[in-house]
Specification:
The chain is an all-alpha fold. The chain has three helices and no strands. The protein starts with a helix and ends with a helix. The mean pLDDT is 83.
Length: 66
């Protein structure tokens, strides 16, 4: 929870800190946790799909010897 330590502004919270805020003392808002997790995962997958060609080109270019 390092992000919680240094970020005091509510508008600049990181996603793990926001997800942690859904966990209460007696109850947990599982719907909100799952929705935020799905949105976060879809964003990462979408960025990977869009940059896949460039990532693979760089990976194979660094592996070729000579």
């Amino acid at each position: 929870m390092l992000g919680l330590t240094f970020m005091n502004d509510k508008a600049r919270k990181t996603l793990p800190v926001v997800i942690q805020s859904f966990v209460g003392r007696g109850d947990t808002d599982w719907g909100s946790i799952m929705a935020a997790s799905v949105l976060y995962t879809l964003t990462v997958v979408l960025v990977f799909i869009l940059l896949r060609k460039h990532l693979m080109t760089g990976t194979t270019a660094g592996a070729v010897k000579g």
